[in-house]
Amino acid sequence: MYRLLLVVIFFLMITGCKLSPTSNVSITSSPLVVTSTSLPLTQTVTPEKIQESTPVQTSTPIPTNLTPSPTASIETIAIAESDSNGNITLGEYAVANESPFNYGSAVVTSKGTGLYHINIEVVRLYSHHLGNIESDFNITSGKINLLDKEMTDVDITFSQNKLIIDYPESSRFGGANAEPKGTYYLKNTGIEDTKFLKELFDSVNLGESYRNGFTDVYVTALNGSNQLMLLQSKSSINRFNIVSEYVVVYSEKENKFNFIGVVHDIHDVDIKKISDKLKILGFEQDTIYRTLKKDANDRYINVRMNRFDNGEIDGIDKPLTDQEAFYVATGEEGKTGISDNRRDKNNIGSIFITEVDHSDDKTVTIHKYEDVRNDEKDTHTATSDWITVERLSGNIKGILEGN
Description:
This protein starts with a helix and ends in a 5-residue tail after the last strand. An eight-stranded antiparallel β-sheet has the order 7-6-5-4-3-10-9-8, with no helix packed on it. The radius of gyration is 29 Å and the shape is globular. By secondary structure, the protein is an alpha+beta fold. The protein has seven helices and 19 strands.
Protein backbone atom coordinates (compact mmCIF):
# COMPACT_ATOMS: atom_id res chain seq x y z
CA MET A 1 0.00 0.00 0.00
CA TYR A 2 2.77 2.42 0.89
CA ARG A 3 4.57 1.75 -2.45
CA LEU A 4 1.30 2.30 -4.36
CA LEU A 5 0.87 5.70 -2.64
CA LEU A 6 4.39 6.79 -3.64
CA VAL A 7 3.69 5.82 -7.27
CA VAL A 8 0.50 7.91 -7.34
CA ILE A 9 2.29 10.98 -5.91
CA PHE A 10 5.15 10.62 -8.41
CA PHE A 11 2.67 10.36 -11.28
CA LEU A 12 0.90 13.61 -10.17
CA MET A 13 4.22 15.50 -9.96
CA ILE A 14 5.42 14.59 -13.47
CA THR A 15 2.02 15.26 -15.09
CA GLY A 16 1.69 18.75 -13.46
CA CYS A 17 -1.66 17.99 -11.85
CA LYS A 18 -2.64 19.93 -8.67
CA LEU A 19 -4.97 18.99 -5.89
CA SER A 20 -8.21 20.99 -5.77
CA PRO A 21 -8.13 23.83 -3.19
CA THR A 22 -10.23 23.35 -0.12
CA SER A 23 -11.24 27.07 -0.06
CA ASN A 24 -12.32 29.65 -2.56
CA VAL A 25 -9.70 32.12 -1.28
CA SER A 26 -6.03 31.89 -2.37
CA ILE A 27 -3.31 34.20 -1.07
CA THR A 28 0.15 34.80 -2.54
CA SER A 29 3.01 36.61 -0.85
CA SER A 30 3.36 39.77 -2.99
CA PRO A 31 1.40 41.43 -4.36
CA LEU A 32 -1.55 40.33 -2.22
CA VAL A 33 -4.17 38.61 -4.42
CA VAL A 34 -7.59 37.84 -3.03
CA THR A 35 -9.95 35.72 -5.15
CA SER A 36 -13.42 35.13 -3.82
CA THR A 37 -16.72 33.98 -5.30
CA SER A 38 -18.40 36.91 -3.50
CA LEU A 39 -16.44 39.44 -5.56
CA PRO A 40 -17.11 40.08 -9.26
CA LEU A 41 -13.41 40.40 -10.09
CA THR A 42 -10.12 39.27 -8.65
CA GLN A 43 -8.68 42.17 -6.62
CA THR A 44 -4.96 42.89 -6.43
CA VAL A 45 -4.07 44.96 -3.39
CA THR A 46 -0.54 46.31 -2.99
CA PRO A 47 0.71 47.91 0.26
CA GLU A 48 0.53 51.34 -1.45
CA LYS A 49 -3.13 50.81 -2.29
CA ILE A 50 -3.86 49.75 1.25
CA GLN A 51 -2.49 53.06 2.56
CA GLU A 52 -4.53 55.08 0.07
CA SER A 53 -7.80 53.30 0.70
CA THR A 54 -10.64 55.01 2.55
CA PRO A 55 -10.61 54.22 6.27
CA VAL A 56 -13.55 52.30 7.64
CA GLN A 57 -15.97 54.56 9.49
CA THR A 58 -18.82 53.63 11.78
CA SER A 59 -22.17 55.30 11.28
CA THR A 60 -22.16 56.76 14.79
CA PRO A 61 -18.63 57.37 16.17
CA ILE A 62 -18.50 57.54 19.95
CA PRO A 63 -17.89 61.08 21.28
CA THR A 64 -14.64 61.25 23.25
CA ASN A 65 -15.36 64.31 25.38
CA LEU A 66 -17.59 62.68 28.00
CA THR A 67 -15.26 63.48 30.91
CA PRO A 68 -14.55 66.94 32.34
CA SER A 69 -12.07 68.78 30.15
CA PRO A 70 -12.22 72.57 30.05
CA THR A 71 -10.19 72.96 26.88
CA ALA A 72 -11.08 69.85 24.93
CA SER A 73 -13.79 69.92 22.28
CA ILE A 74 -16.26 67.19 21.50
CA GLU A 75 -15.23 65.07 18.56
CA THR A 76 -17.49 65.20 15.52
CA ILE A 77 -20.34 62.76 16.09
CA ALA A 78 -22.87 61.58 13.54
CA ILE A 79 -26.22 62.83 14.83
CA ALA A 80 -29.42 64.05 13.27
CA GLU A 81 -30.90 67.51 13.77
CA SER A 82 -33.99 66.30 15.62
CA ASP A 83 -36.31 63.36 15.94
CA SER A 84 -39.29 62.92 13.61
CA ASN A 85 -41.57 64.80 16.00
CA GLY A 86 -39.14 67.71 16.31
CA ASN A 87 -39.20 67.35 20.10
CA ILE A 88 -35.49 66.97 20.73
CA THR A 89 -32.19 68.33 19.47
CA LEU A 90 -29.27 65.93 19.55
CA GLY A 91 -25.77 67.13 20.36
CA GLU A 92 -23.56 68.38 23.19
CA TYR A 93 -24.73 70.99 25.71
CA ALA A 94 -22.87 72.94 28.41
CA VAL A 95 -23.90 75.00 31.42
CA ALA A 96 -23.64 78.78 31.27
CA ASN A 97 -20.28 80.14 32.42
CA GLU A 98 -18.65 76.73 32.07
CA SER A 99 -15.17 76.44 33.62
CA PRO A 100 -13.08 73.89 35.53
CA PHE A 101 -14.77 75.26 38.68
CA ASN A 102 -18.26 74.93 37.18
CA TYR A 103 -18.28 72.05 34.72
CA GLY A 104 -21.56 70.71 33.35
CA SER A 105 -21.99 68.76 30.12
CA ALA A 106 -24.93 66.94 28.56
CA VAL A 107 -24.65 64.72 25.49
CA VAL A 108 -27.80 63.55 23.70
CA THR A 109 -27.51 60.89 20.99
CA SER A 110 -29.78 58.61 18.97
CA LYS A 111 -29.62 54.82 19.22
CA GLY A 112 -32.09 54.34 16.39
CA THR A 113 -35.65 53.01 16.16
CA GLY A 114 -37.02 55.74 18.41
CA LEU A 115 -34.53 55.14 21.22
CA TYR A 116 -32.23 57.89 22.52
CA HIS A 117 -29.54 58.30 25.17
CA ILE A 118 -28.61 61.16 27.49
CA ASN A 119 -25.49 61.48 29.64
CA ILE A 120 -25.15 64.46 31.98
CA GLU A 121 -21.97 65.01 34.00
CA VAL A 122 -21.37 67.75 36.54
CA VAL A 123 -18.17 68.61 38.43
CA ARG A 124 -18.27 71.52 40.86
CA LEU A 125 -15.99 73.52 43.14
CA TYR A 126 -12.54 72.73 44.54
CA SER A 127 -13.70 69.45 46.04
CA HIS A 128 -14.76 68.15 42.59
CA HIS A 129 -18.28 67.25 43.73
CA LEU A 130 -19.84 65.00 41.11
CA GLY A 131 -23.33 64.70 39.67
CA ASN A 132 -24.60 62.38 36.95
CA ILE A 133 -27.74 61.40 35.07
CA GLU A 134 -27.44 58.75 32.39
CA SER A 135 -30.25 56.82 30.79
CA ASP A 136 -31.85 55.73 27.55
CA PHE A 137 -35.14 57.44 26.76
CA ASN A 138 -37.99 57.44 24.28
CA ILE A 139 -40.88 59.69 23.36
CA THR A 140 -44.48 58.69 24.00
CA SER A 141 -47.33 61.03 23.04
CA GLY A 142 -44.87 63.90 22.84
CA LYS A 143 -43.45 63.23 26.34
CA ILE A 144 -39.82 62.28 26.97
CA ASN A 145 -39.53 59.22 29.22
CA LEU A 146 -36.28 58.15 30.86
CA LEU A 147 -36.15 54.35 30.94
CA ASP A 148 -33.94 54.05 34.03
CA LYS A 149 -36.31 53.12 36.86
CA GLU A 150 -34.53 55.46 39.29
CA MET A 151 -35.00 58.45 36.96
CA THR A 152 -38.68 58.27 36.03
CA ASP A 153 -39.39 61.56 37.84
CA VAL A 154 -36.74 63.47 35.83
CA ASP A 155 -38.26 65.92 33.34
CA ILE A 156 -36.35 66.82 30.16
CA THR A 157 -37.37 69.78 28.01
CA PHE A 158 -35.79 71.02 24.77
CA SER A 159 -36.36 74.68 23.90
CA GLN A 160 -34.52 76.43 21.06
CA ASN A 161 -30.85 76.12 22.12
CA LYS A 162 -31.63 74.92 25.65
CA LEU A 163 -31.92 71.59 27.42
CA ILE A 164 -33.71 71.90 30.77
CA ILE A 165 -33.41 69.22 33.44
CA ASP A 166 -35.81 69.22 36.40
CA TYR A 167 -36.82 66.82 39.15
CA PRO A 168 -38.27 66.94 42.70
CA GLU A 169 -36.12 68.09 45.59
CA SER A 170 -36.47 64.62 47.09
CA SER A 171 -34.46 63.12 44.24
CA ARG A 172 -30.67 63.19 44.43
CA PHE A 173 -28.27 62.65 41.54
CA GLY A 174 -25.20 64.56 42.73
CA GLY A 175 -23.02 65.68 45.61
CA ALA A 176 -23.02 69.05 47.34
CA ASN A 177 -23.73 71.85 44.84
CA ALA A 178 -23.43 69.28 42.03
CA GLU A 179 -27.01 68.33 41.24
CA PRO A 180 -27.34 68.07 37.44
CA LYS A 181 -30.63 69.98 37.58
CA GLY A 182 -30.81 73.18 35.54
CA THR A 183 -30.33 74.57 32.05
CA TYR A 184 -27.72 73.45 29.52
CA TYR A 185 -27.02 75.37 26.32
CA LEU A 186 -26.37 73.91 22.89
CA LYS A 187 -22.64 73.72 22.23
CA ASN A 188 -22.17 71.49 19.18
CA THR A 189 -24.35 69.21 17.06
CA GLY A 190 -21.62 67.31 15.26
CA ILE A 191 -21.63 66.75 11.53
CA GLU A 192 -24.96 68.48 10.91
CA ASP A 193 -25.72 71.96 12.29
CA THR A 194 -29.25 72.60 13.52
CA LYS A 195 -31.34 75.47 12.18
CA PHE A 196 -30.43 77.50 15.28
CA LEU A 197 -26.70 76.99 14.76
CA LYS A 198 -26.95 77.71 11.04
CA GLU A 199 -28.58 81.08 11.75
CA LEU A 200 -26.04 81.82 14.49
CA PHE A 201 -23.12 81.01 12.18
CA ASP A 202 -24.68 83.05 9.39
CA SER A 203 -24.82 86.06 11.73
CA VAL A 204 -21.00 86.05 12.03
CA ASN A 205 -20.44 85.03 8.41
CA LEU A 206 -18.67 81.86 9.52
CA GLY A 207 -16.85 80.00 6.75
CA GLU A 208 -18.21 76.64 5.63
CA SER A 209 -15.03 74.82 6.67
CA TYR A 210 -15.68 75.73 10.32
CA ARG A 211 -19.30 74.60 10.44
CA ASN A 212 -20.80 71.17 11.12
CA GLY A 213 -18.82 70.22 14.19
CA PHE A 214 -15.78 72.51 14.01
CA THR A 215 -17.13 75.41 16.10
CA ASP A 216 -18.12 75.25 19.78
CA VAL A 217 -20.65 77.67 21.23
CA TYR A 218 -20.33 78.75 24.87
CA VAL A 219 -22.96 80.78 26.69
CA THR A 220 -20.69 82.66 29.06
CA ALA A 221 -23.27 84.86 30.81
CA LEU A 222 -26.97 85.69 31.00
CA ASN A 223 -28.46 89.18 31.21
CA GLY A 224 -32.23 88.99 31.33
CA SER A 225 -33.31 87.27 28.13
CA ASN A 226 -29.92 87.95 26.51
CA GLN A 227 -27.30 85.20 26.18
CA LEU A 228 -23.68 86.27 25.82
CA MET A 229 -22.07 83.77 23.45
CA LEU A 230 -18.46 82.95 22.59
CA LEU A 231 -17.92 80.96 19.39
CA GLN A 232 -14.60 79.11 19.12
CA SER A 233 -13.71 77.72 15.69
CA LYS A 234 -11.24 74.83 15.74
CA SER A 235 -8.63 73.72 13.25
CA SER A 236 -9.50 70.62 11.22
CA ILE A 237 -5.92 69.40 11.76
CA ASN A 238 -5.68 70.04 15.50
CA ARG A 239 -9.01 70.27 17.29
CA PHE A 240 -7.32 71.90 20.30
CA ASN A 241 -6.09 74.80 18.16
CA ILE A 242 -8.50 77.76 18.15
CA VAL A 243 -8.46 79.45 14.75
CA SER A 244 -10.81 82.33 15.55
CA GLU A 245 -13.33 83.52 18.13
CA TYR A 246 -16.60 85.41 17.70
CA VAL A 247 -18.75 87.23 20.24
CA VAL A 248 -22.53 87.32 19.83
CA VAL A 249 -25.43 88.40 22.04
CA TYR A 250 -28.54 86.32 21.43
CA SER A 251 -31.92 87.75 22.43
CA GLU A 252 -34.31 84.94 23.37
CA LYS A 253 -37.19 87.40 23.52
CA GLU A 254 -36.69 88.68 19.97
CA ASN A 255 -34.99 85.53 18.64
CA LYS A 256 -32.25 87.69 17.12
CA PHE A 257 -28.45 87.53 17.00
CA ASN A 258 -26.39 90.66 17.67
CA PHE A 259 -22.90 90.13 16.25
CA ILE A 260 -20.49 92.04 18.50
CA GLY A 261 -17.10 91.32 16.93
CA VAL A 262 -14.30 88.94 15.97
CA VAL A 263 -11.44 88.16 18.31
CA HIS A 264 -8.74 87.09 15.85
CA ASP A 265 -6.17 86.70 18.61
CA ILE A 266 -6.41 86.65 22.36
CA HIS A 267 -4.36 89.88 22.47
CA ASP A 268 -5.96 91.59 19.47
CA VAL A 269 -6.86 95.28 19.50
CA ASP A 270 -10.50 94.37 18.71
CA ILE A 271 -10.88 93.21 22.31
CA LYS A 272 -11.14 96.85 23.42
CA LYS A 273 -13.88 97.58 20.89
CA ILE A 274 -15.82 94.43 21.80
CA SER A 275 -15.49 95.22 25.50
CA ASP A 276 -16.93 98.72 25.01
CA LYS A 277 -19.94 97.33 23.09
CA LEU A 278 -20.69 94.77 25.79
CA LYS A 279 -20.54 97.40 28.53
CA ILE A 280 -23.18 99.41 26.68
CA LEU A 281 -25.38 96.29 26.63
CA GLY A 282 -25.10 96.03 30.43
CA PHE A 283 -22.51 93.30 30.92
CA GLU A 284 -20.06 93.65 33.84
CA GLN A 285 -16.30 93.94 33.29
CA ASP A 286 -15.60 90.61 35.04
CA THR A 287 -18.09 88.87 32.74
CA ILE A 288 -16.54 90.50 29.69
CA TYR A 289 -13.05 89.39 30.72
CA ARG A 290 -14.19 85.79 31.33
CA THR A 291 -15.71 85.76 27.86
CA LEU A 292 -12.93 87.39 25.85
CA LYS A 293 -10.16 85.56 27.74
CA LYS A 294 -12.01 82.30 28.44
CA ASP A 295 -9.08 79.92 27.91
CA ALA A 296 -6.65 82.04 29.96
CA ASN A 297 -9.22 82.42 32.73
CA ASP A 298 -9.86 78.64 32.73
CA ARG A 299 -6.12 78.03 33.06
CA TYR A 300 -5.92 80.41 36.03
CA ILE A 301 -8.76 78.48 37.69
CA ASN A 302 -6.85 75.26 36.96
CA VAL A 303 -3.80 76.62 38.78
CA ARG A 304 -5.90 77.35 41.86
CA MET A 305 -7.64 73.98 41.76
CA ASN A 306 -4.32 72.15 41.36
CA ARG A 307 -3.04 73.91 44.46
CA PHE A 308 -6.08 72.67 46.37
CA ASP A 309 -5.62 69.13 45.03
CA ASN A 310 -1.98 69.20 46.15
CA GLY A 311 -2.96 70.14 49.69
CA GLU A 312 -2.05 73.83 49.40
CA ILE A 313 -5.39 74.94 50.82
CA ASP A 314 -3.91 78.00 52.53
CA GLY A 315 -1.99 78.88 49.37
CA ILE A 316 -4.83 79.00 46.85
CA ASP A 317 -4.78 82.81 46.75
CA LYS A 318 -1.01 83.27 46.76
CA PRO A 319 0.57 85.16 43.82
CA LEU A 320 1.36 83.26 40.65
CA THR A 321 4.92 82.10 40.08
CA ASP A 322 6.65 83.01 36.82
CA GLN A 323 5.95 79.53 35.44
CA GLU A 324 2.29 79.67 36.49
CA ALA A 325 1.88 83.10 34.93
CA PHE A 326 3.45 81.84 31.70
CA TYR A 327 1.04 78.89 31.69
CA VAL A 328 -1.98 81.16 32.19
CA ALA A 329 -0.91 83.34 29.24
CA THR A 330 0.26 80.63 26.82
CA GLY A 331 -1.02 77.23 27.96
CA GLU A 332 2.55 75.89 28.28
CA GLU A 333 3.06 74.24 31.68
CA GLY A 334 6.28 74.25 33.70
CA LYS A 335 8.05 76.72 31.41
CA THR A 336 9.02 80.36 31.19
CA GLY A 337 9.79 80.34 27.47
CA ILE A 338 9.09 78.53 24.21
CA SER A 339 10.40 78.88 20.65
CA ASP A 340 9.39 77.72 17.20
CA ASN A 341 12.33 77.54 14.77
CA ARG A 342 11.13 77.93 11.20
CA ARG A 343 14.48 78.70 9.59
CA ASP A 344 15.63 76.64 6.64
CA LYS A 345 18.72 74.44 6.38
CA ASN A 346 20.80 77.54 5.61
CA ASN A 347 19.64 79.18 8.84
CA ILE A 348 17.57 81.72 6.90
CA GLY A 349 14.13 82.64 8.16
CA SER A 350 12.58 83.23 11.56
CA ILE A 351 12.47 81.84 15.07
CA PHE A 352 9.25 82.72 16.91
CA ILE A 353 9.93 83.21 20.62
CA THR A 354 7.67 83.72 23.64
CA GLU A 355 9.43 84.14 26.98
CA VAL A 356 9.27 85.84 30.35
CA ASP A 357 11.19 89.06 29.87
CA HIS A 358 10.97 90.51 33.39
CA SER A 359 8.80 90.40 36.51
CA ASP A 360 8.24 92.02 39.89
CA ASP A 361 6.10 91.35 42.95
CA LYS A 362 2.85 92.25 41.16
CA THR A 363 3.23 91.32 37.50
CA VAL A 364 5.02 89.07 35.04
CA THR A 365 5.80 90.51 31.61
CA ILE A 366 6.04 88.16 28.63
CA HIS A 367 7.63 89.11 25.33
CA LYS A 368 6.39 87.63 22.03
CA TYR A 369 8.74 88.32 19.15
CA GLU A 370 10.30 87.05 15.95
CA ASP A 371 14.06 86.59 15.55
CA VAL A 372 14.55 87.21 11.84
CA ARG A 373 17.65 86.30 9.79
CA ASN A 374 17.47 87.21 6.09
CA ASP A 375 21.20 86.74 5.49
CA GLU A 376 24.51 87.06 7.35
CA LYS A 377 24.23 90.83 7.55
CA ASP A 378 20.46 91.30 7.86
CA THR A 379 19.26 90.11 11.26
CA HIS A 380 16.69 91.78 13.51
CA THR A 381 13.84 91.12 15.92
CA ALA A 382 10.19 92.06 15.47
CA THR A 383 7.90 92.29 18.49
CA SER A 384 4.35 90.99 18.12
CA ASP A 385 3.18 91.66 21.69
CA TRP A 386 4.05 92.37 25.30
CA ILE A 387 1.74 90.46 27.67
CA THR A 388 1.30 91.47 31.29
CA VAL A 389 0.03 88.88 33.80
CA GLU A 390 -1.19 90.03 37.22
CA ARG A 391 0.12 87.66 39.86
CA LEU A 392 -2.86 87.98 42.23
CA SER A 393 -5.84 88.00 39.84
CA GLY A 394 -4.36 86.01 36.97
CA ASN A 395 -5.68 88.59 34.52
CA ILE A 396 -3.68 89.03 31.34
CA LYS A 397 -3.46 91.97 28.97
CA GLY A 398 -1.60 92.53 25.73
CA ILE A 399 -0.04 95.86 24.84
CA LEU A 400 -2.09 95.95 21.62
CA GLU A 401 -5.39 95.99 23.50
CA GLY A 402 -5.16 99.64 24.46
CA ASN A 403 -6.35 101.13 27.72
